[in-house]
Here is the input.
Amino acid sequence: MAEHKDQENEIISKEKYTTTLEITSLSGERTFQQISFFKEVGQAPNMGDFIHLIKTELGEEVEIGELAPYWVFKTVLGHPTSIKNIRVVRTMKDNTFQKVTLL
Here is the structure.
């Protein structure tokens, strides 16, 4: 059996997670948005994943504001935005999702 040493040929399986974000505007209006994303099998979502997710999905530069009881991300000063903060309400692993295998 041949071993593949190239990373291109590695088999990577991913699990699906869905997170609910509460977005608070500068005027105080709150909206909720659900976003799905993938992580490698055995890895839990971390703070860096959420910062990257908010940047790619919402186009906002954020930094952590509060850790407890919920993760609250505040927008970085200097960037024009109508968002005051983004709070992670919940994150769930989708156990009904078939693992994605990438070659």
